[in-house]
Amino acid sequence: MQPENLTELLRKHPFISDLEDKFLKTLLSCASNVTFSDDDYLFREGEEATKFYLIRTGRVALELHGSERGMIRIQTIGPGEVLGWSWLIHPYRWHFDAIAVEDVRAFALDGKCLRTKCEKDHDFGYEMYKRFSQVLENRMKATRLQLLDVYGLDRIERG
Amino acid sequence: MKVIERKSMNILFDILREKGYKIVGPIIKERAIVYDELESVDDMPIGWTDEQDAAEYRLKKRTDKALFGYVVGPQSWKKFLFPSRLKLLSMERNGKEFKIHENSDTVEKYAFIGVRGCELNAIFIQDKVFKDGEYVDPYYKKVRENILIIAVNCTEPKGTCFCASMNTGPKVKKGFDLALTEIIEDKKHQFTVEAGSEKGEEILKKLPNKEADEMIKIAVDKLMKSASRKMGRKMDTTDIKELLYANLENPQWEDVAKRCLTCANCTMVCPTCFCTTVEDVTDLTGDNAERWRRWDSCFNLDYSKVAGGNFRTSPKARYRQWMTHKLASWIDQFGTSGCVGCGRCITWCPAGIDITIELQAIRNNPIKTQTK
Amino acid sequence: MHEQVMTQTNIIADPMMPQLIRISKLVWETEHVYTIYLSPNEEMERGFIFRPGQFNMLYVYGIGEAAISISSSTYKTKTLIHTIHKVGTVTSALSKFKKGDYIGIRGPFGSGWPVEQVIGKDICIIAGGIGLAPLRPVIYSLLKNRKDYGKVYILYGARTPQDLLYRVELEQWSKLFDVEVHVTVDRGDQSWKGNIGFAAQLLSYIELDKKNTVSMVCGPEMMMKFTVEDLLEKGLSAENVYLSLERNMKCAIGLCGHCQFGPKFICKDGPVFSYPEISYLFEKKEI
User: Fold this and answer.
1) C167-175 and C132-144 are packed helices; what angle lies between their axes, rounded to 10 degrees?
2) Which of A73, A80, A150 sits opposite C188 (nearest CB)?
């Protein structure tokens, strides 16, 4: 994939749509274009978190294995969304399995490479953290809402 | 304006009875002045008065033999227009099918004796709820069409009265058949009478009466003006709706909540409260069922139950619901305040919570408005 | 030409008097939710006339009444359909009924979804759990008059894949080339290949024309609260967002007082409201 094409495609992704050109270049130096087939695992719980993904098409499900309950899928990440922030936060290990539930096309970004860049250029680091804190917040809100179990039988209705 | 003597009151009762009215009015029962059937004028609380304050109600003997020398007790006229228990429907089952019948019991023709200004306005307010809206309560309408109202101007307001603030008294202005003002001066015991309708005119003609002279007119006028000034409480109703809507999260509600027992007394004694619930019951065979309507209260915990929960459980939320409905939301719903200033909720609250004081507390300490 | 729905409602002479209706079918949708199909009696010559969003009071002999939204099509008046969550005494008793049994109904009551007022707009329907039931008549109307509207989105969230309602119809709708359907669940299993996440999350997968979109939302109040927040964040104006609220109902005619929400009676001023009508109450607790 030629760098110019990658730039165009990358720029279109909501996560980095308003990133300054010089920072986009930095990101690009750590980026590659990847595809996964239905039922491929992108990463496993416990593995070192070396990448994160900007999903272009398709859907990835986060899975947890709770011993007696078997496998539970707790969230899906779809087009335009971001998969994985554990590469940015110590101890840099995945907390879930991620499995493609459809054919997936995504940008894979090298976490180790980017961590180094963040240390060297704090302005770039700041842009990354700004965006990821937004991702974390959205994910937190979504998780809380799922936790509320609003459709459950024993919910309390409060205005 | 006419004047009648005390003994004409006995004649009035005879006339009403002849006309087939069931006479209901003030009578002492269980040490309070309530409304119930009156066999004669002697059943009335002659020579009694009431002393009222927050959480206090006592009867005291007067030095005269006034018929109407008190204000309002724990019951209101809604007892007759809007009974606490009413059968709505009866059903019979026949195999898989069942038949439903409306309640077609005949209704009484009432004559209300001694309706005060606040109470008359409460009846108008309930008219708007039950009779003048999109859906009409057929029982209320039937009873209401047949009642005869003998109103009374209050000359001695009591400790919790604030009808003057709510513009509902002490003088009755309209909507009555006859309006009386009791005057006891020296040894004379008289009533001024005004007819407010054709029915009233007709009855007045049958009573021995004479034209009211200037002196009496002046005396009545003085009495009413002085009564307006002797109110036990007052309420500032300026922009009351906007004030309460803007203060739904005022900390004052938490303060009230510490005192409120959610006993629902206020809603039972209030002459305008109209919340009800519906109960379906069957007999032991299951072949006959009935649907009954009975009074409910927004203070009851079950009141706001929904499938899967209850959205108004705290006493704070329930008190707030009652007070903001009564003083603010009612205006949006029916065009008038829901409160007539009768003071019953103050008198009969076991915790002595005073709606006029609570409102003033919010007025004194409103939430600062935030610019959007 | 927009086919006119008969907007005149079937007001019964005495709104407190139930009419007898026969059940023609009872079908279980999920473990706790069932749908009953009712046939009109002889007095109802034109069948059941109602507006999408209205509800009936369903009476079970000797037990009581429950307020349930209507889920049938306003164009198919010979069958009245109600989808019911088995959760209380009345709905539990009703769930045991079979074809040929009788119940009483009163209604229809309440305000409806603004189906005619939004002609020409893009419509985004967002339903949570049983909230799809009161919205289904809208979907039927939109599809019947498809060319009168712009884009149509149906976003639906349920607790688990087993709790999805109207699965066959959802599939049919998603196959239509001029309707976009997205479904999500709160938790999934290995067999679920769809979205997992909160209902409003589905908004990130579609691009709404914020000036020209009207959204109709129905579900548990918590879900509606957050969904409305997200819709407003996406730039929709408040008056283009409609909700259907639920409260305890005894009389359904604004006389018993139970369904009050601030000054609004949900049974007669609602259950459908445009967001500005109730926004100042919605954000407060225990109203």
Assistant:
1) 30
2) A73
* Nearest Cα residue to C88 out of C55, C64, C62: C64
User: Which C residues, 45 through 104, put their C-beta within 8 Å of a C-beta on chain A?
Assistant: 87
Domains and CATH numbers, chain A: 3-144 (2.60.120.10)
Q: Does the beta-carbon distance from C190 to A71 stay under 8 Å?
A: yes
Q: Are B94 and B85 in contact (CB under 8 A)?
A: no
Task: Please report all neighbours of B, defined by 3+ CB atom pairs within 8 A.
Answer: A, C
Q: Check if CATH label 3.10.105.10 holds for domain C122-244.
A: no
Enumerate the domain spans of chain C: 19-109, 122-244
Query: Exposed, middle or buried: residue B191 (CB in 10 Å: 0-12, 13-18, 19+)?
Result: buried
Whether the predicted pLDDT of A154 surpasses 70: no
CA nearest to A53, candidates A107, A10, A103: A107
**Across the interface, do C262 and B275 touch by the CB < 8 Å criterion?**
no
Please give the structure tokens belonging to residue C234: 């996406």
Average pLDDT per run of 10 along chain B, which is 372 residues long? 95 96 97 96 97 96 96 96 94 91 90 97 96 91 95 95 95 96 90 96 94 93 93 96 95 96 97 96 93 95 84 93 97 96 97 97 86 45
Domain C19-109: assigned CATH number: 2.40.30.10
The angle subtended at Cα B60 by Cα B56 and Cα B64, nearest 5°, is 145
Which residues from A are below 8 Å from B309, CB to CB? 155-158
Q: Do A153 and C87 touch (CB under 8 A)?
A: yes
